[in-house]
Amino acid sequence: MTDTKLNIDRAALEQLLNKRFFYAPSYGIYENVAGLFDLGPTGNALQQNLISLWRQHFVIEEDMLEVDCSIMTPAQVLKTSGHVDKFADWMCKDTKTGDILRADHLVEGVLEARLEGDALARKMAGMAISDNGAKKDDDKDKKNKKKKKAGPVVAAKLDDSVVAEYKNILAQIDNYDGAGLAELILEHAICNPETGNEVTSPVEFNLMFESSIGPTGQLKGYLRPETAQGQFVNFGRLLEFNNQKMPFASAMVGRSFRNEISPRSGLLRVREFTMAEIEHYVDPLKKQHPRFDEVAAISLPLLPGSVQLQGKTQPVIMTIGEAVEEKIVDNQTLGYFLGRIYLYLMAVGIKPELLRFRQHLQNEMAHYACDCWDAEIKTSYGWIECVGCADRSAYDLTVHSNFTGEKLCVRETLPEPLVYEKLVCEPNSRVFGPKLKKAAKPVQSHLLSLSESELVAVKEALEKDGKTTVRLSGSTADGEYEITGDMVSIEKKTITEHVREYTPNVIEPSFGMGRILYSLIEHSFSVRADDEQRAVLSFRAVVAPFKCLVLPLSSHPSFAKPLLDVARQLRSKGVPARVDDAASASIGRRYARNDELGTPFAITVDFQTADDRSVTLRERDTTKQIRGPIDEIVTIVKDLVSDSITWDSVLAKHSLVNTSSSD
Q: 551-586 b/e with 16+ CB inside 10 Å = b?
């Protein structure tokens, strides 16, 4: 593995996930369709726990307004938002087989494979032939590398200058547009790694799933590519619900759909997925955050755009306060949410050394964003974007307001009147309406939305030629319209405002829950030091699918009643408990298979339980056990799960039980 990927035995992990039904391809008994997955009981419980903690961390603690909006979206909504025209990736095609490949992933995969081949060649050149241990490790590396999408890794040493060039390209791969990717494909002789065939020049492919609404098929729609648009169009209602107070945030958890060109990497690139999105509405002139001091001292690994453009990928460690002060992060509100995202990812169990925040380069910036940072998590597939935090400025509210005529803005009473001069366009209603007829209202709205500099250009054209042309797009009357001097008056006027009207800016943290889930699984995966066949998923108790295992030592009839009693007590205290009474398996084997589920605690009912109603409590990672009365042990588990106490504090108060026969 290269230093850009997490070095784990992915084959063993995938076998475990399949065996324990964390997730599986949808409709698997039929021919599989790539990019669609079903979560099993374990994977679903894990995702629900991640969402529950997300709600606590953001919605409840930040007093957000959670909504649930429609999946099916009328085409005009997404046309207005820009998604119909701009929500696309670059794809190319194998010239012989017709296989479709995503262009940036193709270039990235091939260059990474060549760099791995270079590293392998350099390693082999310095390796003693008699070193059997090194050869064994090398064979293991080759086994892992054969699973790469980029095809088999060939040991071939590259010139140092070529290595540097490849690394420079990979550092800014997201900054290349279609023409840039086409140039890279030609210059570096990049072919389909699975066939060796040449590929076509990249073309754009819109990622939205198109559908129709109603029986006639005439009303076009799309499955939503994000949850945000439903929140934006409800801004007026949300503001009213919030008693006109600013700033505030809405939030939503739901399914989104993207018709990925080449789904791959399990849950990391799929066509249907769960998103958790926040839209924080803020005054564009007041982007300070009242709770910024709570996160200002947090140090983050930041990878600014300026560093990436130098061909570097080493993050810069600095506090959020320093990043905002130096304008690396644009404003306090954006910085505040970067800090909150970091704290959430730490709370669920992501390893801090495998996390970085990368700034979007200009060419990869979404059409609606003026700045964006991704929380990227290191996995065996490389650095994966799991959370995006974008400053969407006033883009969405403005375009929806312009098209519909609905005011999506805030009115703020000023403490003192604001007096200023402004260029104002006033239509002459006697001429304007009769000349433009049905187009009068949209043309008037367009003229009133023009900036000062745009109005100056219109005024100068009218004074010079007596007429000008305005072009409407994205409205109910798209086209070109002639405006003459007798139709409008454009003059400087003194404006006195007692009420300030503005369109809020939006800071949007957007979470891909499936990607966080998979990254967490990789970060939690390990094998026992004394037995590589025994895998463990060391989930934190707060997100573990099952909090406590309850099991009998054997199938003895006397164990049945206390077993059910323990399980009922745990569940009554809100602790999800899983009973494993398959006594045909040894106690050690039952511990082991629940370690694979990530269950942090296990309570065992044995022969002593019948005598004194005591049970043993085992902790997953240390495998250490204590003994105590049922009521006390249940209370300890409840406190452990809620993070009220730690396992170390429990061990300090209780004697260990001999576990040599079971673990």
A: bbbeeeeebeebbebbbebbeeeebebbebbeeeee
Pairwise CA distance, residues 572 & 16, whole Å: 31
The answer on pLDDT for 662 being more than 80 is no
- Strand pairing category for 548-552 and 577-579: parallel
Angle at 586 between CA 583 and CA 588, to 5 degrees: 130
- Both tokens of residue 163? 């290595």
Higher per-residue pLDDT: 435 or 31: 435
CA dihedral 384, 389, 393, 397 (to 10 degrees): 90
Residue for token pair 């005054």: 283
Residues 630 and 198: their CA atoms lie apart, in Å, by 68
Cis peptide before 74 (omega within 30 of 0): no
Between CA 54 and CA 51 the distance in angstroms is 5
Residue bearing tokens 């490790």: 137
CA distance linking residue 536 with residue 596, whole number of Å: 5
* φ, ψ at 211 (rounded to 5°): -150, -175
Q: Are 280 and 506 in contact (CB under 8 A)?
A: yes
How far apart are alpha carbons 19 and 35 in whole angstroms? 20
SS3 49: helix
What are the C-alpha distances in Å from 118 to residues 104, 140, 153, 609?
Answer: 21, 17, 9, 62
Given a cut of 70, whether residue 147 has pLDDT beyond it is no
Count of Cβ atoms closer than 10 Å to residue 281 Cβ: 24
Please, are residues 505 and 408 in contact by the beta-carbon 8 Å criterion? no
**Strand, coil or helix: what is 196?**
coil
> In terms of C-beta distances under 8 Å and separation of at least 24 residues, what long-range contacts does 209-215 make, across chains too?
209/257, 209/258, 209/259, 209/271, 211/72, 213/72, 213/74
Kindly tell me the burial class for residue 299, based on how many C-beta atoms sit within 10 Å of its own C-beta (0-12, 13-18, 19 or more).
middle
What are 319's strand-pairing partners?
Answer: 299
pLDDT digits (tens, 9 = 90+) for 297-311: 999 999 999 999 998
**Cβ–Cβ under 8 Å, residues 398 and 81:** no
**532-562 pLDDT tens trace:** 889 999 999 999 999 999 999 988 888 989 9
Do 546 and 518 contact (CB within 8 A), yes or no? no
Instruction: Output the CA–CA distances (angstroms, integers) from residue 350 to 57, 265, 515, in the order listed.
Output: 15, 19, 12
Q: What is the pLDDT of residues 594-646, one digit of tens each?
A: 999 999 999 999 999 989 999 999 999 999 999 999 999 999 999 999 999 99
* Separation of CA 303 from chain center: 17
**Is the separation of the CB atoms in 185 and 103 below 8 Å?**
yes
Calpha distance 7→296 (Å, rounded): 33
Rounded to whole angstroms, how far apart are CA atoms 535 and 549?
Answer: 17
Could you tell me where the beta strands, DSSP code E, fall in 503-662?
A: 505-512, 525-528, 531-537, 548-552, 577-579, 601-605, 614-619, 625-629
